[in-house]
Amino acid sequence: GCRIPKRVKTDPLIKLAKSAKAVKGQIARWKWDELRFWTLVEKIRKRVPEGSRNAHAFIIGAILRHRHEVPAILEAEIESAADRLYRRMERSKKRSDDYTLAMVTKEIRAGAKGKKRGSKIKSQKIADWLKVTTHEAELLRDLHQTTSKGTWPPAKGQPEMAPRVDRAYRKSVILKWMVSNGFQVSPPSRQLAAIIRDELAMKISYDTINQYRKELRPPQPPQEHTQGKLPLAD
């Protein structure tokens, strides 16, 4: 004869607040993922090989879905990314290739709007779709260093990444490279940082470059002391 009370439903506003908080916490992650994507395509590979073109379009669309909430801004970013990605795509030489810019835009839009905002795509899935090699994963890790452990791993079947290079070793490599190329004084720190990023695949701040240059300056000879008479005050 006991009464069983009905289960009280959770306030939907509480669920919405938690969901919004979770999405907000992922903003930094998707910003870094977008940087890694374009670094991989434009600087490391410099092309999108045939056979993985639709995978690249889907991944950048999924990243943009998490980066932009406003529909108009998202649509503008899709158009920009499609044009940027299409210029890097390989064309088949054996047969007529009808893979057009409109198709790239459609595939990116499918990745950006195909699922509701907030759904996660793990870094391992991104690496598998893009077929990231161990060497590429290590370059991306060192070029875009974050305070957290989040980065793109190698695709499944690839060897594990080597441990991150410690600061002392990185410093010795950069100093030797600067001396061998005569970069103790010029070019400016901003330009030198870009050269180091491209040549050594290492990220370095302008302040660190200036500090390294101070250490590379030759020591100044001690000033000669001469005796002289100085007038003394009363």
Strand content: under 5%
Q: Residue share in helices?
A: 55-70%
Shape: elongated
Which residues form runs of ≥5 with pLDDT under 50? Answer: none
Which structural class should the secondary elements be placed in? mainly alpha
Give me the number of helical elements. 10
Mean pLDDT: 79
Radius of gyration: 27 Å
**How far is the first residue's CA from the last residue's CA?**
110 Å
General description of the model:
By secondary structure, this protein is mostly helical. It is 56% helix and 0% strand. The chain has ten helices and no strands. The protein has helices spanning 12-25, 27-45, 53-67, 71-86, 101-113, 123-130, 134-143, 167-181, 189-199, 206-216. The longest helix has 19 residues, at 27-45. The protein is elongated, with a radius of gyration of 27 Å.
What structural keywords apply?
mainly alpha, 234 residues
SSE topology sketch:
Elements (H helix, E strand, L loop, with lengths): L11 H14 L1 H19 L7 H15 L3 H16 L14 H13 L9 H8 L3 H10 L23 H15 L7 H11 L6 H11 L18
Brief summary:
With 234 residues, this protein is mostly helical.
